[in-house]
Amino acid sequence: MIQIILSNKAYENDVYPLAKAFYPDEIIKVIAKDDYDQGHFELKTTIDHNPIDHNTIYRMEVSKDNLGMIDIITKDTEIVITVSFLNGEEVRRKEYADILIKAQYKNSLKRLLYHILSDITQVQLPWGILTGIRPTKLVYEMLDEGRNEIDIIAHMKSEYLCSDQKISMSLQIAKRERELLSSIDYQNEYSLYIGIPFCPTTCLYCSFTSYSVTKYADYVEEYLKALEKEIEYAATCFPDKKLTSVYFGGGTPTTLTEKQLDRLLNKVREVFDFTYLREFTVEAGRPDSITREKLVVLKRYGVDRISINPQSMQQKTLDLIGRKHTVEQIKEAFQMARETGHTNINMDIIIGLPGENNEDVADTLRQIKELNPDSLTVHTLAVKRAARLNQEKNNYQELKAEDVPTMLDTTINFAKDQEYLPYYLYRQKNMSDNLENIGYSRYGKEGIYNILIMEEKQTILALGAGALSKFVFHKENRIERVDNVKSISDYVSRIDEMIQRKQQFLKDNII
42 and 18 in contact (C-beta within 8 Å)? Predict the structure, then answer.
């Protein structure tokens, strides 16, 4: 276990993920310095402090596996980081920054910690000190400010320590996003998210708000009634704004029956004005939830973009992660979608799944090439605390994926060879090898909603259990969030409260 002692725990969300990126398999405990000094916690190791080097430049003589404690003191303009090793050796570095400029001070702290841990581990993170941050949003904003590419590249390298490859990718995608969103009036348009928190089964890596439709079958009807009530209210929220896009996510919306799906889509089309709609997406997601009849229903109500998400085309992997369908079912569902007139189909894959290697990913891409989807989203596995893969991690230690960065390179080369253009990118905490998720598409088949939710340029009204609305105040350069409860039973019983939350927020704020 590595202990991080913080004089100011306000920086916990900055230093913890950075340390975790260098030591992904270690348990890392963050402790407030006051608690540490008073002994209000259980020490797992005893360290004798014998300073060996207090200089800013030094040769690391200790093993990276020997690290025991990181002591971080932030006071006024001074940042001091002391790293203690289990053999009693100690290394200390110091940095100065203006504490009154919060962002710069925080980045100075992160850069100092990065350099120390990089020296110890001999590892360089491709995204530098960026952890759980949308890199393209930073680049997008600099482009909007009129900064040239040379300046942006220099800033991303010096301020965030990003690699040349990642900076180049961020620039390419940010420019593409700006082109795609150039005709959208952010202040006078909004988008709509509707969450269906049911799935055929819960995947091993999943931490989203989703419930097995088999176990929770009795809740579906009551959930839809509550959701329809929230939909009716939501249609009154922005009478003077145009609706840009609608996105049905989850969960898996197509776990609903054909009749339920028809009823829900009809309600949305009935109460919302689709006159100016640019995109209507439904995540069909799991192939074992797709039928020809449901695909016909989607077309009938104007759905023009769907996702059929295999995650992997390796049967051994599908069985391991709890997806109760076959590779052949994926192919059958895709062909049915084409036969029923769906001309914009996305497919998701995940790299870094347990037990997979680069050959597995290459074979998955080979099979996807035969289907020829219109877009491809490549996710790097990010294991959240709530996922079974994390809670039961001891059962999967021997199935750790091999060489995830090579897998990512394989997907990048595949996308380029197949003429898929990268159009959005985002990152999460605890991602394998500190990598990223990238959305690729053929020209004209991009998912507009995906860019909007990532770049946070437009208000998104979110409905359903676990849904999070984002209200964007352009003049004040701020974003406010209003969330719904995650539990299905709570959502159903407290639907009036969920509506009241939004009503009160809109009453108190002029969007």
Answer: no
- The answer on pLDDT for 59 being more than 70 is no
Tens-place pLDDT, residues 63-79: 566 788 999 999 889 99
- Residue 259 tokens read as 């009749």
Q: Class of the 183-501 domain?
A: alpha beta
Burial class for 420, CB neighbours closer than 10 Å (0-12, 13-18, 19+): buried
Q: C-alpha angle with apex 425: 406 to 128, nearest 5 degrees? A: 65
- Do residues 230 and 175 touch, judged by C-beta distance below 8 A? no
Tell me how far apart the alpha carbons of residues 349 and 377 are, in angstroms, rounded to a whole number. 6
Residue showing tokens 């509707």:
194
Distance between CA atoms of residues 502 and 236, nearest Å: 11
Is residue 52's pLDDT more than 50?
A: no
Determine contact, residues 488/504, Cβ cutoff 8 Å: no
- Spatial distance between the Cα atoms of 443 and 419, rounded to a whole number of angstroms: 9
Q: Three-class SS of residue 98? A: coil
Token pair recorded at residue 60? 């690391």
Integer Cα distance of 194 and 176 in angstroms: 26
Q: Name the pairing type of β-strands 375-380 and 437-441.
A: antiparallel
Q: Is 273 helix (H, G, I), strand (E, B) or coil?
A: coil
What is the structure's pLDDT at 49?
37
Q: Which residue has the tokens 């539990």?
A: 487
Q: How far is CA 61 from the centre of its chain?
A: 37
Are the C-beta atoms of 482 and 502 separated by less than 8 Å? yes
pLDDT in tens, 334-391: 999 999 999 999 999 999 998 899 999 999 999 999 999 999 999 998 765 444 455 4
Question: Is residue 375 within 8 Å of residue 445, measured between CB atoms?
Answer: yes
According to the model, what pLDDT value does residue 436 have?
92
Using DSSP bridges, classify how beta strands 67-75 and 2-6 pair: parallel, antiparallel or unpaired: parallel
Confidence of residue 162 (pLDDT cuts 50, 70, 90): very high
DSSP H or E run through 378: strand 375-380
Q: Where are the domains of the chain?
A: 2-121, 135-178, 183-501
Helices (H), 23-89: 33-38
CA distances from 94 to 85, 90, 264, 445 (A): 18, 14, 59, 50
Residue 283 has pLDDT above 50, yes or no: yes
Scored b (16 or more CB within 10 A) or e, 158-174 reads ebbbbeeebbebbbbbb
What span, in angstroms and rounded, lies between the C-alpha atoms of 384 and 130?
18
Cβ contact 425:438 at 8 Å: yes
* Residues 129, 131, 133, 136, Cα dihedral to 10°: 60
